Amino acid sequence: MSNDATGRPDGEQVHPTQDDPVARALSEGVGGPIGARAGRHPWWTPVRVLLALTAVCFALGMLQKQSCYDDTWQDGTTRYTHMCYSDLPYLYTGRGLAERTWPYSDDEQVRARYPQVMEYPVGISYWAYGTALVTQAVTGWPDLAERLGRPTEELFGNPDVLSEIRIFVIVNALGFALVALLSTWLLAKVDPRRPWDAAIFAASPALALTALVNWDLLAVVFVAGALWAWARDRPVLTGVLIGLGAAVKLYPLFLLGAVLVICLRDRRLHDFLAATLWGAVAWVLANAPAYLTGREEWAVFWSFNSDRGPDLGSVWLVAAQAFDATITAHTVNLGSWLFFGAWCLGVLAVGLAAPTTPRMAQLGFLIVVGLLLVNKVYSPQYVLWLLPLAVLARPRWRDQIVWQSTEILYFASVWWYLNGDLAPGGGGDAGFYWVAILLRMAGELYLVALVVRDILRPAHDPAHDPAHDPARAPDRGDQLRSTRSNAVAV
């Protein structure tokens, strides 16, 4: 058996206390780094430890929302000062879920009562509708006749509805917990040598704080699944998972850009075409029920995002407020897409110039960061878009702590901003909020710089596998057989 650059036998699992300086330093308080003769626990495998970490992290996130849960998100100040805001309670009544209204119903009476349609992709709408049905099944299928006789704005204060809202949040939270556990499992399996890299996801404070803000976590499992499927040389499954992910949130679609770069380098365009084709099929099939039952309602997501101007967390909002300028939605759309197009060309150039083929997580991370840097809105839960990609693109605790610290600062500042706590005493704009936005962007660019360096100089990449160096692995078939054999052995 040959050894890699660290002297470790090829294919052997990497332990963080031997590989990561921060993990090594922290381990001194509990006995120090793992020794060369350390045995394996008969039950606590790395994956099981990671799942336990995820469960604890998610439970802490639910506990962090306790104060809002206690008053069913009715206190407009607490939800900001305690940073426990969630969209879920308000959309339960605001989008007709409390009356079991199908999100894409084109019934005239329904649309007259609920003119505002779910503004999310279909995957989220299906999940929200499904969890609303589960909620009402648990609460005994309440009679809707009494509710239909009230104005919709009164529903949120109805005691019976408030009880349902709490159950609705619990049902969603339990579902999200399963999604987070599955995401951890998939991330741990991407590289059989490095299951512990998923610990950065499993113990992430960003995951704990933002998982219940909205339904964005649903897309994370499809991203993790696509990374797992591609690592096992399954382009069709990769495409299907990307397509389903894009039906939940649009951004997983751009992972096809990472697939394209890899396939161009490895002369595997047939794999890219297969992934793209099956991704399109999965997306169409996922959208079909919504499109067929309410075409206009289905189109609301697209028009809503197109007509949106500079919004929370965006550099466009900073520019508009700092320079007292009016920036139209058209300007934001045009500027964002031009920047993103140029950014993707840059990622393509970096990927093709690399001495070895970059990993999908590295390329995917770079692409999604480019999308978020100039997006017209950056809701606090958007950190989840980057999280699974970032932890595998740059699996170093120090760098992840630096980046996630800026995200947590932004998470806190957005609630302070909405509560008016950052407004200067003499009036004017909240400059500290601009600083938080720019620091968050700086944290993302910090990781971008490290990932680009790792791609161009693989010796710096913590997850680089020397077995994939051209000098050591001239035949791709041998690489794939080795990967499969390692996956079976784990």
Automatic annotation (TrEMBL):
The keyword Transferase applies. GO terms for cellular component: plasma membrane. It is found in: Cell membrane. Signal peptide: none annotated. Keywords: Cell membrane, Membrane, Transferase, Transmembrane, Transmembrane helix. Residues 7-22, 462-481 have a biased composition (Basic and acidic residues). InterPro entries: GT87, UCP010361. This is Unannotated protein. It comes from freshwater metagenome.
